[in-house]
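hiii, so i know i said id send this last week but things got crazy w the move. better late than never?? heres the sequnce for the chain we talked about at the cafe, plus the structure i predicted for it. fair warning i was half asleep when i ran it
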Amino acid sequence: MKSEQKFTEKIAARYRSIYARVMDLWAYCSEGVWEDHRTTLKVNIIKTINLTVKTFLSTDLQSKACAMTYRTLLAIVPALALVFAIGRGFGFQNLLQTQLFHYFPSQQKALEMAFSFVDSCLAQASEGIFVGVGLVFLLWTIVSLLDSVEETFNEVWGVTIDRSIFRKATDYLAICIILPVLMICSGGLQIFMSNTIQRLLPFEFVTPFIEFLLDCVSFLFAWLFFTGAYMLIPNAKVKFKNAFPAGAIAGTAFQVLQWLFVSGQLYVSKYNAIYGSFSFLPLMLIWMQLSWLITLAGALICCSAQNISLFSFNKQTQNISENYRRKVSMAVLSIILKKFAAGEPPLTVSDISNRYNIPSRLTANIIDRLLKCGLLVRIAPQGENEISDELPVQPALSIDHYTMSYVIDTLRNHGEDNFIPGFDKEFPEVVRVCDEIYRHISTAEGKTLLTDI
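okay and structure toks below
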């Protein structure tokens, strides 16, 4: 009995130890990792996964994927019409059709119907007065879709500043022209590789290897496609080292989705029994929504990997006291003023955060408030007119204006004021005491310049 009791206690102690370790690991991965200053690969991966999951749960990516599915459905025929119009100019229409069937093997019926619509659309667009109107409609539909994609990616990245009209026109036009050319080149490259390898190695046992190699090429093209999308579409500077892993994950998930839809064709018979000849439509909508969900999730991974520094001390930053926020604001403003007075290059948010170990999100919030108060301005490089969150900042006024009392008074008076009817009459003593407290700022110390601190 004693031996059994000891064994039971030993098992219980082992269970408690494992449970405690698991809970400690969970506490570290869920919250404690953001207070870890190490920049090792393991810590960065945990932070990226943590931020991706939290953002995925807090943002409604499903609704965004549904909206993009609807917009894509509206633009799919005009987009294909433009692609095929360019393809006919090069004499590669049949190759384009083959490539689309190769890229979307689960959507054979949908593509066949879309091709018939495309032929009708191009036939109508090439006749009479409809030539100009049809071309404008095609371009407007595609530009509207691309604008929606950019807007969605900007929402994922938290970017509030859109591209200029000129940049939208040039970038979208480049996409509309380059995409068909890339499809033709990729298709030609795969055919060239297949024929070349089979000619150099005319053995039957090599065929499986060739098929595997071409599958790897398809995966590589998918990775590069998503990587390019994550780098070029959002109006933000996206680093390749963050875009490529996200592109590889999204590209692999997209290829797996393709395989699932192709290998699951046996379930189509159930849809045929319900929807008849329209059975391809719900399958296409499901495939399209899942594809957009994969795309947006990949963008979220890319954004999380690049911005993990923004969420260091996230809990403390969200609950920061007004007194500590004022101190950090004064410190940040003092840094910028001293750099300007010394004639040194202006700093960006990232520069200030990295040099002085201030959490990036807190620095960004403080800089944003100082900009809104008119204490700072962003400066663009010579020849550029676009405003970006990555631009450096400098003082908006002469540095002689930046006394302690002036800055504190500007910060506390920024925003709407005195809009509650009869508030001063209802609480006269509160108003008097608060004004008296802030009046002490205008003492000798309050007139000290921030550049002298």
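btw The mean pLDDT is 75. thought thatd interest u
miss u guys!!
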